[in-house]
Fold this protein.
Amino acid sequence: MNPAPWNLIAPDLASLDTIWRSPLPFVLWPVCEKPLLAYWLDEAVRRGIPSVRIEAVDRPHLLRGWLDQRDLWSRTVEIKTTPETGGGYESITIDHLPSQAGVAKIESPLALLGRWLELQHEAIRCRKTGMVHLDQEIEPGVWVAPGVRIAEKVTFSAPCWIGSYARIGSNCHLGPGAFVGDGSFLDEDVEVEDSIVCADTYMGSHTSLKNMAAQGGLLLDLKKGVAVEVADSFVIGATSSAGPSLVSRAVAYVLGPILCALAGIAARGRPAEELPVRIGRDRGIVLRNYPGGPLCLRRAGWIRYVADGTMRWVGILPRTSADWDALPPDVRSALERAPVGVFALSDLYQCHSPSEADEWTHALFQAGAANGAGNKLARNALLKIALTKPTL
Amino acid sequence: MRKQPPPDFTIDYWIRSSTVGGRLRLRLRMFLKLWVWKTVIFLAHGLKRLLDLIGSGAALIFASPIFAITAILIKREDGGPIFFKQMRVGNHGKLFPMWKFRSMVTNAEEVKAKLAAQNEMQGGVIFKMKDDPRVTRVGRFIRKYSIDELPQFWNVFVGEMSLVGPRPPVPKEVAEYSAEDRQRLLAKPGITCLWQVSGRSEIDFAGQVQLDLAYIRSSSVWTDLKLLFLTIPAVLLGKGAY
């Protein structure tokens, strides 16, 4: 007798994700080498489940995108955004791993982060069943993916997992419960215990993580439920800079003062307006808006932030705290990680301020379009945008 | 046991971050370390591609007389097409057309269905049998010395395949893969691999997966060169090939 098809329910936990504010829905959060959803799809293959239906309300487009990158799942997988009954489906809520039974419902933001750490521990625990794995067990309970380089005098306490092409510096101590993502770099004398170091994260020398999660420069306390952004990248940060290129910054150094001088002349004595905006999660900066001329002169005061690497030439428009609060939560989480620029795609459509009703739809497209299509569109029309005279 | 650094050393390190010059030095140190590591990763991937380009380019040029003779022989035997194109599953499950010299009769797929019961590849999903009646006379010779595989150097040259890597499966095989078997799709497929060198078709499917994963784990340009040199005697002796 064939087993019943599965109806996997991706729980809508976006309202509980108030600490990390992840750009991904919970089922795509990384659990060791793959997202939580992948464990269930692998289990479906293992149990011979003929077809899988995924019920997703929280950002289903990201789930579709993730599935599209993986060809030839040997089972039919479809995504539904509305609950469906019938068809003899067996319903399973994906807030745990297939090997876990009787897990409690996630009811608070702290419990959500706690579950994330618990999933990592469980993923390592259930590897001991003798399954074939690409990762290698270098010590009991210590798993290492291909391409990892571990320096001398590194000690481990199980369970540990190190992702591919991670670099562990000398005299580090990992574990118990250290989960280091792909491409991460742990400098000398780093300690990680009961913590998650997300992919592409740099941890500076003589740093220590305990009951924490680190993603780029963002630190999450998994016990107290606090998030802190670390400004100094040599303490903890991303391995690759998300800022503008050196050429863009050099151009900004040269053009910035010239355009500011021209903007001052075009303003004809009228004072520049100061606008406090919030970049990313917590960083606040003050932008100077000049009152006259085309956009390149009105925003000449912004260019200094391209020179210092905070903003780009092309990105979404910077927002005040009030503008951020006015956005729907899912839009806010999608835009928070998008780079902020002096010129935006919305400028091409005569939306020059985040307070305008349609601006966020353009920003959302610019932030989420595949292969940076939104940014490309804005870059191609950069001169036109820069010379636009806004009708205010 | 891990030796703890002296507290003074750690304090001294962090005192550096309190001055502008110290912060700049720490930032520069971080930048250099990351740059070196990224270069190592880039070279690990870049050198493999460079080896593929040089190796496949040279093979296409130097094997051109063999290409010409084989093409004439195949055409003369039954007048059918010289090349055989088959969709294979590549890196991360992406499909690509793999080229071979045609070694079977033109209606081979129809005959295959009738022969399915005689599959000798036990415990797996691959179809192989000795004295396969679908193989032509020229086909038997070019298969024995792996000449039929030569057009795959074109797949390597365009970047769909690598010189060394797990053999690319057909989509039908992948549909029957278990979650564990699927891990062999995590590398670019190749012309030769560990299991081809160590016994070729005589190894069962589970053994092939184990060897493919062992290759992916230890993949480096040095391993690739070693496997390429080991492939030459395996091909010349025709070991394990039908």
